[in-house]
Amino acid sequence: MRVFLGVVVRRSGLEISERVQDAARRSLPFADGRGGVDSWASGDRQAQVFTWSNEPVQPDRPLLQRQGEDKAVFGFSGYTIGQPLDAELLLRGEPLGRQGGVWSAIGGSDGGVVSLTCASGAESVFYAETPELLVVGNRALLVHLVADPSGPHHDPVGLASIISAGYAVTDRSSFEGVRALRPATAVRLTPSGGLSVAPVEFAAEPLPLAEALRASVEPLRAAGEQVQLGLTGGRDSRLIVALLRAADVSVSTRTSGLPDDPDVIVATEVAAALGVPHRVTPPMGATVAESQVTVDVQGRLKEAVVLADGMLTGYDRVGRIDDVYKPAMNPFGGSGGEILRGYYAGAVKDPSDPAAVLTYMRGRLFGSAKRLTRDTRAAFEADAQVWLTDAERTGAAALEDFYVVQRTGRWTGAARGSASIGSLAQRPYLDHEVVRSVRAVSLAERMSERLIAELLDDLAPQLRNVRFAGRRWKFDESAPLDPRQREAWDARAPVIGAHGDQASFNWRLDLPEVRAELVSVVMDAPAAFWQIADRRRVEEMVLSERPSNRQEVMRTWHLATVAAALSNDFWASADSRLLPATSELTAPVPNALPPAAPSSGDRLRSLARRVRDRVRR
C-alpha cells in the first residue's frame, strides 16, 4: 500500500509537519514507516508532499521521484504499465499520453500540488479545503485529520450513502469537508489560485480494445510467473483467463464455495475446457473444520472501517489491518468487467424507457434510504439528485456513467485501496487504457453483450458452448428453430442454484449467528448513529425473528459497519487502530444447518427486550 498526501499552505509561516505526522499515526492502516517514508517541500515550504508505504523498498518504484535538483517531485499509488507517467506534463497540466495500469498520481512544485485519477478511478483521491490549508491525498481520514486535527468529524450524508447503498453514491466521503475525485480528473492546489478540479485531457486516442487488453497483461507474460486467478461462473473472469492463456501467461484458478454452487460447477468446466489447473476452496472468510464453520464478524467490521475509512461495508473483506505486503503475490480476478457490458445500463430491461431508467437509478441510490431519519434522508436525496437529473437528461448513458464513477470509482476504489495493503493486485478491466478503449465503444454494442462475446470467441473458441451460472448471453436467450442448433442451445442452459447464480450457502447472509452479531452491533450504536438512522424502521427490520431475504441481511451489514465506525470513532487512535478486534462465531457446517437456530432467536428476543427496557427508562 502506498499512501500519499499533498498540502498547500495558504498562510505563510504555518508549520504543518507535526500535524501531518500525527494524522498519519491516527489514520494509516499499517505501522508508520514500515516500508518507507519520504517527503518533499518547495523552497518557500508552501507546497509539500508526503508519502508512506508498507511495501519493501524497490529501487525501480521509489515513493517519490525528484526532478530538476529537487525543484519538483512526483509519486503514484497502484501500478503503471509502459513508460512512467510524465511528471512534467502532469505538473504543467498538459494533455497526457498513453499510460496503462491502475493508478492515481501526485506531483509537487513551486507552483503548488496536483493530483489525478486514472480512467477507472479505482485508485482513489480525496481533497479538502480550509482557510489555512489545501489538502489532497489517497486516504480520506488522513486528508480529514490534516485539514482538521480536532477530528474525526463524520459526514452524516456521506454515511447515509453507505447505509442506503453499501457504498458512496456521490462524491462525499465519511468525513466532514472531504470529497472524492472522479475518474480521469485532476485537482490542482495553488497558494494563489486555491483549489480547482477539471477533467484530465489526453493527447493519444484510445487503443482498439483487444490491443488494450493484451497490453494490460503484457508485464505478466514478460515476468514469466504464474498468476492466481479467482474464477467464477460468469463472463468477466472467464474472459480474463482466456486473455491470460492467449498471452502465454501461466495461470492457475481457484473458486470459493461448496460443490453445488453454480460458480463452482461452471468454473470447473471452464478450467477443464482451457486446460488450466483449478481448485475449489471453502467459502472465503470462513474456517471449516469437521462439522463446524468459524467466522469473525467484529474483525471484518473493524477492517472495513480502518482499511476503507468506513466507505466499504464489512460484508466485503479485502485486506488485513497492518498486513505484511507480499510482492510475489499477484491475485487476479474479473473485477470491473461489467463495464464491457454497459452496466448498469445493460441491467435495465428496456433501457430506451425513461421511466425504467429512472426507476433503476432510484434503486441503486436509495436501496435502504427509508431507514434514514427524515432530515438525513432529505439531505441525502438532495445530494444524490444530480444522478436522477442525469438519468432524466441522458437516459441509459447516465446509468453507465454512474457505474464507472460510483460503483467502480468508489466501491471498487475502496476495495482496491484496502486490498493493496497485502499485494499489488492487477486488474485488466480497471486498466486506464482498457477503460478508455471500452468507453469508446458504443453503449448499445456493449449492452447487447456482443462485444465481450466476440472477444471470448477470438481468444478461446473452445469456450463457445460452455454454459454460464445464472443466465445466458442476452442475444442467446431465444431458442433456435433449427433442431441441430437447438441441441447445442439446450446444452448451454445456465446453471441455477437455490439462490439463482449465487452461492447455495453464504455464511455472511445465511448464518443466524452472524445476523445476531450484526444486530447487536447496530443496537449498541451511539447517539450519533441514531441521528442518521431511523431507530423505529431499523428495529422493525433487524429485530424480526427471521430476515425476509438475503438482501435484508446485506443491509444489516451496511448498518453495522456505520455503527461500528461511529461507536469507535473510526478507530482514529494510534493505540487501538492496529490492534485486532475479533469475535469468533462457530456454527454447523452448511449441510447441517437447521432451518432456524434457537440460540440466535433467543439472542434476538433478548435484544428486543433490551430495546423495550431502554424505551421505558
Keywords:
617 residues; six-stranded antiparallel sheet; alpha+beta; disordered C terminus; globular; 16% strand; Glutamine Phosphoribosylpyrophosphate, subunit 1, domain 1; single chain; 21 helices
Textual characterization of the structure:
A 6-stranded antiparallel beta sheet has the order 2-3-1-9-8-10, with helices on one face. A 6-stranded antiparallel beta sheet has the order 4-5-6-7-11-12. The protein starts with a strand and ends with a helix. Among the domains are: 2-199, Glutamine Phosphoribosylpyrophosphate, subunit 1, domain 1, CATH 3.60.20; 507-616, no CATH class. 39% of the residues lie in helices and 16% in strands. β6 (100-109) and β7 (112-117) form a beta hairpin. With 617 residues, the protein is of the alpha+beta class. α1 (17-27) runs antiparallel to α3 (140-147), α4 (156-165) runs antiparallel to α20 and α6 (236-246) runs parallel beside α14. The chain has helices at 17-27, 87-92, 140-147, 156-165, 209-223, 236-246, 262-274, 297-308, 354-365, 374-394, 396-419, 432-439, 443-447, 450-459, 483-491, 507-510, 512-523, 527-530, 535-542, 550-567, 598-616; strands at 2-9, 37-41, 47-53, 65-67, 72-81, 100-109, 112-117, 126-129, 133-137, 179-180, 185-190, 194-199, 227-230, 251-256, 278-281, 287-289, 292-296, 331-332, 584-588. It is globular and about 80 Å long. It contains 21 helices and 19 strands.
